[in-house]
Amino acid sequence: MLKLIWKGLKWLLFTVVLMTLFIPAAVLIWGVQEQPVLLTGQRMNYEHVTRLHRLMKDHDPRRMRAGETKQLVTVEDDLNLALQYVMSNLKDSGAKVDIDNNKATLTLSVGLQPFKLQGYLNATAALVQKGNNFWLEDIRIGAIAIPNRVSRILSWLSHRLLLNFESYRNGLGAIDELKFRPDQLELTYQWRPELLKEIAIAHRELFSSPEEDERFVFYAQRIAEISRKLHIIAPAELMLKPLFNFAYLRSATEEQAALENRALLSALGVYMAGNTAQQLMGRQEKHPRERAVRRYLTLAGRYDLAQHFILSAYLSSSAGDGVADGLGLFKEFKDSQGGSGFSFADLAADRAGRKFAQLAIDPSRARNLQQQIISATNENDFMPSIESLPEGIQELEFKARFASLGSDEYRVIENEIERRLKA
Asked: Do 45 and 174 have their domain in common?
């Protein structure tokens, strides 16, 4: 009997080793293709904004009671727009979801150039609903088709493995029903406030390390100290210059400079955003005992521009350029629907913050940026002029003047902003 068990274990070990070696080789040989199956191209419009704002209002956690049942309905077009902004962080990459009765199919193309490889990794997979169960089927990686029997086994094993995590179990428990209908997804769930905290903790455990937490707390403490020395309204450079001086002193290498800059932008973004960002990142219990006092940092004498610049830099450094760009555009569209109006000046601050983050977290340029900010004589060294950029444009005027984000009229102003950023 022991000999039989040992024989079985050896066979299992051999199979695991063989699969470990074979699967990566097979993906490189048959999974990589010369052309992508799709690339992104859609741009945000007012219909997207209206639907998204309604979803945010209907499912605002601050307005829901514990145990309340809600139904979320979202259309395929909006999901694909969100995927586009997320995927835009990867060069020559795209993703698309197709929703039909009882089935959602995800198609993915990832350009391999950033990984020093040629070609594209194209993949598709379908999440199929059968009764109360969901299975992965129709998995294809390049020219490799995974048999559905194998896909279902992988689905079951993944589910069993994830059940070991409390956040996964609680998340499943909150879902009453999930349905796929032609071009839309319907999710019925029970609101559980504790899920936000669990998501924050899971986010920190997955994407953060003790070293990153230490850096974040260091800069949060410096922000608290600096904020107490500033007037209630103060130029943003009075916060940025001493922070980047600390970052420079703590950066022994270029790689270290990029890490310090990322932590600095994260802490500064949390300061500008308030408790919502703290809870999202799971940082509230790590915030310094001496809390920062609220100061209205300004760029070009305006608090709103500093908000746009810093929050865009924070989002770009933590979530990617695509997410920062998408959220910035969403806010401007929303402002044009009865608010302060679409502002190209705000958009310029968003783009400047995004460019700032790109320089800050690039190891080859991070240390140079630190020195530039420390020696900056005024904010023009990192914030472009907003002179003559249109502002206060309401929805009807925007549609009449620009029609859409792809129009020639819109591109003229967008290109002017890019020109100022490069100056």
From this structure: yes
